[in-house]
Amino acid sequence: MVEKSFNLEFGTGGLRAVMGPGSDQMNINTVGMATQGLANYISKSVGIDNASVVISYDCRNNSAEFARISAEVLSANGIGVYLFESLRPTPEMSYAIRKKGATAGIMITASHNTKEYNGYKVSWSDGGQITSPVDKEIVAEVNKMSDISEVRFEPIADCPAGKIEMMGEEMDECYLSDILSLTLSPEAVKRHAEMKIVYTPLHGCGVRLVPECLKRLGFRNILHVPEQDINDGNFPTVSSPNPEEAPAWEMALEVAEREGADLILATDPDADRMGAAVRNREGKIIRLTGNQTAAILAYYMLTRRREMGSLHKGCYLVKTVVTTELVADIAKEFGVTCHNVLTGWKYLAEQVKLHEKDGEFICGCEESCGFNAGEFVRDKDAQLACSLLAECAAWAADQGKSLYDLLLELYDKHGFWMESRYALVRSGREGAEQIRQMLAEFRENPPREIAGLNIARVVDYLKSEQTGLPASNMLQFFTERGDVISVRPSGTEPKIRFYFSIKGDEAEAITKRLCAAFGVDEL
C-alpha cells in the first residue's frame, strides 16, 4: 500500500503539526501541496481571473520559508499574492484580506503550540477562517494529487496575474488606525496616561504593533521584558509561549513587581490571543482567565456604548459554547443578543458575516484568551484586546476602581462563576484511539453524577437537530445546580479537553472535588 503524500486535515485552527519529514508533518512538501490544493480550489470555485491571496507568518522556525513557498506556488498558478515583508500577526492578515479585496489568506503559524510545531491557517474573502465544506474541499483537492511533482513551485516572472506584491508599513498604518477608531474612553486615557503597563510578546510578532498601539492610544509608560521582545521560534525563555499557562508569565510578573505595575499583558506568537494579569484588593497580582477578561471587556463595551447612545436593538455579542455564561448574562442585562457558537473563531466570524446587513457586532469572545470587536478583522485580535483592556483600566480608574473591582461587581450582580480547563494528552495513533474510546464511553454510558454533582441534562453536539449548530464531536453535561462540564477533543493537538463552569458560593469546594475525580492537583 502506497503512503499518501498528504495526511493532514484542517482542524479548529487550520493545519497544525510537528515540523519534520513525512506526509503528516509540516515541511516544504506538505506546505506546497496544501497551497496547490488551495490554488486548485480557487480556480474551480471562483476562477483565477483577478484572484489574489494575502500571506503572513509569525516568528516560528521555518515560518518565513513556508510563507515564501506558498507565495511561489500561488504565483506559479497565476494567482496574485500580497506577501508581508516580515512577520505580522494573524489578525492583520485577516484585516489585509478585506482591505485588499483578496480571495483568501494564508497565515503560517501554530499559534500557542510549543516550538516543535508549525501550521497553516487559511481564511476566505470575508477574512474569517474557512469552515466546512470549504476546508474539506481544499483537502480533497490536495488528495487528488498523486505526487509532489504535481505542485507548481516556480513563480511566474513578470506576469501581472501571478504577481507577488510585498506589503509592510502602509498596511500597518491602516490597521492601527482602524483599531484606534474603536476607542471608547480617550479622555480617561489622557487622565491616566502614566499608568504602568507591562507587556510581553513571548518572543512573537505582537512586539511590532501592541506597544505602538498602546502608545498611540495615549499610554506613555509601557514596560517591556527585553529578553522576550526578541523574535525567536525556539522560545528560549518559556517552556510554552501560551498566555493561558502560568510559567509563561514569570518574567513579566517579575518586571511588574519591580516596577509596581497594575496591568500586565501577554500575547501568543501570532498575536491573536491576549492574556492579562491585574492586582487584587490586597495588591497581589493575579492572572485573569480568558473568561474573566471577556466578561470585563463585554461589560465595558456595552456600558460605554449605552452611555454614548450608540447601543441599539441590532447590537449583538458572540461567544463559544464553552465560554462563560456570565457574558450571556451581561448581554441580557443590556438587552442585546448573545449568539452561542461552536469552539473555534471561524464560527464567530461566520456570525458576523451572517449578520452584516441586519445587526452590529459589538464583540466576540472565547475562553481561550480570544477577543475581538468591530467588523474589520474577522479573527481574534490581541492588538485590539490589549488596547481595549488598557483603556478599560483607565476608565475604571476614573471611578476609583480597578479591573479587579469591575470583575467583583459583575460577580455580585450576576453570580459567581469559577471556570477552568483541563487537558489529557494522548499522543500518537494509540492516543487518538484512547480519546475516541473515552468520548464513545461518555456517549454510550453518560454519567449520572460527576464529583457528587447530579447530571440533569446531556447535550451531544454531534446531533445538529438537538443543538441547531453544525455537528461537532463534543458533549456537555448540565448539573441540577446549573453547572456545565464540557468534553471535546482538541482540533489541533493530541488532547482531550474538559471544561468546567461551576456556579455559586460552593464553586471552590466543588472544583476541588472535580480535581480529585479527575486525578489532578488543580484545574
Question: What would your notes on this structure say?
Answer:
Strands 1-5-4-2-3-6 form a six-stranded mixed beta sheet, with helices on both faces. Strands 16-21-20-19-18-17 form a six-stranded antiparallel beta sheet. Helix 7 runs parallel beside helix 12 and helix 9 (290-307) runs parallel beside helix 10. It has 523 residues and is an alpha/beta fold. It has three domains: 15-170, Alpha-D-Glucose-1,6-Bisphosphate, subunit A, domain 3 (Alpha-D-Glucose-1,6-Bisphosphate, Chain A, domain 3), CATH 3.40.120.10; 194-414, Alpha-D-Glucose-1,6-Bisphosphate, Chain A, domain 3 (3-Layer(aba) Sandwich); 417-518, TATA-Binding Protein (2-Layer Sandwich), CATH 3.30.310. The model has no long low-confidence stretch (mean pLDDT 93). The protein has helices at residues 28-45, 63-76, 90-100, 134-143, 169-180, 186-191, 206-217, 250-259, 290-307, 325-333, 345-354, 382-398, 403-414, 428-444, 464-467, 507-518, and strands at 15-18, 52-57, 80-84, 104-108, 117-124, 164-167, 197-200, 222-224, 263-267, 274-279, 285-287, 315-320, 337-341, 360-366, 370-373, 417-425, 449-450, 453-460, 475-479, 484-489, 495-503. It is globular and about 65 Å long. The chain has 16 helices and 21 strands.
